Amino acid sequence: MNSIYYLQMKKHYPIKSVIFVVSILISITILFISVEELHNIDVGLNFNENNAYDHVVYQTNIGYRIPGTNASRTCTTYFVSEFQDIDIHFNYTLHNFTTHLTSCQNALFKLNDDEENIIILGAHYDSRAKATKDPTLSNRNLPIQGANDGASGCAVLLELARVCYQIKDNLSCQLWFIFFDAEDQGKDSGGYGIDGWDWCEGSLKFVSDIDSFYNSSIERIQCMLLLDMVGGVNLQFIAEHHSTSSLLDELFDIGRQLGYTAEFPVYRTSKVVLDDHVPFIYADIPSADLIINFWNNPSWPYHHTIKDDISSISRHSLEVTGKTVEQFIYNNYLNSSSSSYQGNFPWTFDINPLDPAITLLLGILCGIVGIIAFISYLSRKDMIRTYYKRIIDKRKS
Fold it and tell me: Which pTM value belongs to this model?
């Protein structure tokens, strides 16, 4: 019996050692896998949150931007007028399409359209036709203003266009500003925005027609950034799992280096969100969705309710979003001979991270397993020493 036990111990010691080493390595890897230093280009940021706030106010004052309505058309007319205020010759296309027998319209504006590399910035401008998640049942058939969802994203795009136009000659990229129609009418826990409609109808149609908007033989779409619900109070972005992780991680790192650590937390809420970036992902375009926890968030409980109005909008949140995206553009595409920025370009690496709480728990568990294995190894080693000592003492006697 003792010799069999000895052979078993001899056989399992290497295994225990391997378990210990592997467990410790896994623990370290899991806990520190996302640690990477990025260095922003030292350049002034000119995004003005007050201008962006005014754009939110204007959109909500237009009325309910439900697809196919006069208010929806007035909104795209407003976008055109704002871009023409920047430059009367600003290149734009109104992308008309029909869904569920309703005439809809995406709006595309191009800056630096002679550059080969294309960066897409997008947001949806339609507001939901029904407040399907409103806590007051009698309100659930009412339309919502959509100040955050999605006038805020559109407002940030308008201000970014103004800012980037001022330095367009120093940018080595083409910027597309896309305003999507018909994103927000699908079915949530309270029902449809418009009966029978799906989510992201406008972006799906745009991507299906995307070859008509550029020459793929000489132009290259390098990434797509989507801004959705980016202007509400108590802003905190999540790790959206459809997003290309290397692209989203770079945005988080940039935001944190700008000092926005609460808005871009290290340990993020994780969620798969069907949004306007998903059609671009399926078209093999690296894409990232800057979006908040909208499904269970006491800090911003207004999703698809009539309380999604201008009172829920924060100038600071608009600033955080706008300056982070502005910095991203400068880091990667500002012509600067002194630039030493090393980001994650070309954003081809993509891995869906675990929920941060699960990641931390796994790291702790792996560490515990390693410690137990090591203690077990030491205790069994002592047992064998004692066993041999008894045999030697017995033979001596």
Answer: 0.82
